[in-house]
Design goal:
- Helix 1 crosses helix 8.
- The longest helix has 16 residues, at 250-265.
- The protein has helices at residues 21-31, 94-108, 117-122, 145-155, 181-189, 250-265, 291-298, 302-311, and strands spanning 4-9, 35-39, 44-47, 50-60, 68-77, 83-87, 112-114, 139-142, 158-162, 172-174, 196-200, 209-215, 218-219, 222-227, 242-247, 270-276, 279-284.
- The protein has 3 domains: 4-116, Rossmann fold; 138-200, 2-Layer Sandwich (Dna Ligase, domain 1); 204-311, D-amino Acid Aminotransferase, Chain A, domain 1 (2-Layer Sandwich), CATH 3.30.470.
- Strands 1, 2, 3, 4, 5, 6 and 7 form a 7-stranded mixed β-sheet that branches. Strands 12, 13, 14, 15, 16 and 17 form a 6-stranded antiparallel β-sheet that branches.
- By secondary structure, the protein is α+β, with helices and mostly antiparallel strands.
- This is Glutathione synthetase.
- It holds the Pfam family GSH-S_ATP.
- One of its GO terms (cellular component) is cytoplasm.
- Keywords: ATP-binding, Glutathione biosynthesis, Ligase, Magnesium, Manganese, Metal-binding, Nucleotide-binding.
Length: 314
């Protein structure tokens, strides 16, 4: 029997198929004979306690132009779907929060949501990593200027980042000269209104910010090391980094094996660990990427591996 698989994602017309993990998932689901249903966060609603989605059937083609066709959209209970993937990008704002709450209700009404909405809500991509302090570089989360300045004074070379960003946006390195320390703290905290994260700078970033994809708590055999461009400290591909696929190291596997059981326990079936050297910096649970780059380099089919796991849960 054909499965009905939904995907909640940002507008499909804006993606780059050759590098988009959501697109890889759609291709894998279609190859398995599933009927695809497309919706965006604006298509979610609640009607007398029923979780509703204004969804359209979708077909996809593995090419960079003319790569999808949408049918007519209509309002249907989300519980009519077998699986629904959450693939919307941060920032995790109030509308993202409301979407996870609607999807909680949808789960109770019959659809399996990947990743579990309550865990997407609870596991902030920066803060979740702090559950594993022994695996991280020294890290402080605060909005207090005195604390943030004291952390910098202790370490002398640090990375400041917002708690709700992605793609390297809003990330600053403050080195030994301390230039712009006050301006960065003031800007990122909005003069003490917002908590931020500061971490000791890890020189191993020159070897890449590694994205390790975890499927049901198990690491893929290869990761994508995102190498910063000249003059940059950010390895993110969106910030100009260069992706190099490489096998997992022993330390990569040790990190993954420590964190993996916690992901399974929380229903986080597709997760991206960000690793610099042998330290975890973030745990991405909303819309982790890099599947297509790893597949292209190794011949793997990670989206099919994911579908094999999650369809087995039905």
């Amino acid at each position: 029997m054909s499965l009905n698989i939904g995907i909640l994602m940002d507008p499909i017309e804006g993606i780059k198929p050759y590098k988009d993990t959501s697109f890889a998932i759609l291709l894998a689901a279609q190859k398995r004979g599933a009927t695809l249903h497309y919706l965006t966060p604006a298509d979610l609603s609640l009607d007398r306690g029923i979780a509703i989605g204004r969804s359209a059937t979708l077909t996809v083609r593995d090419q960079n132009e003319d790569f999808y066709t949408l049918g007519d959209a209509s309002f249907k209970p989300l519980g009519n779907l077998d699986l629904l993937f959450i693939r919307t990008d941060p920032p995790f704002d109030s509308e993202y929060l409301y979407a996870t709450q609607i999807l909680d209700i949808a789960e109770n009404q019959g659809v399996k949501v990947i990743n579990r909405p309550s865990s997407v809500r609870d596991c902030n991509e920066k803060l979740f990593a702090t559950w594993f302090p022994d695996l991280m570089a020294p890290t402080l989360v605060s909005r207090n200027e005195d604390q943030l300045r004291a952390f910098y004074a202790d370490h002398g070379d640090v990375i400041f980042k917002p708690l709700d960003g992605m793609g390297g946006r809003g990330i600053f390195r403050i080195g030994a000269d301390g230039m712009n320390l006050g301006a960065v703290i003031e800007s990122l905290t909005d003069s003490g209104r917002h908590s931020i994260m500061v971490q000791k700078y890890l020189p191993a970033i020159v070897e890449g910010d590694k994205r390790i994809l975890m499927i049901n708590g198990e690491p893929a055999d290869h990761c994508l090391a995102r190498i910063p461009s000249q003059g940059e400290t950010r390895g993110n591909l969106a910030a100009g980094g260069r992706g190099v696929t490489q096998p997992l190291s022993d330390s990569d596997r040790a990190l993954a094996n420590t964190i993996g059981p916690h992901l399974r326990e929380r229903g986080l079936y597709l997760v991206g660990l960000d690793v610099i050297g042998d330290r975890v910096t973030e745990i991405n649970v909303t819309s982790p990427t890099c599947m297509r780059e790893i597949d292209a380099a190794t011949g793997s089919d990670l989206a099919s591996d994911l579908l094999e796991v999650v369809t087995g849960l039905l």
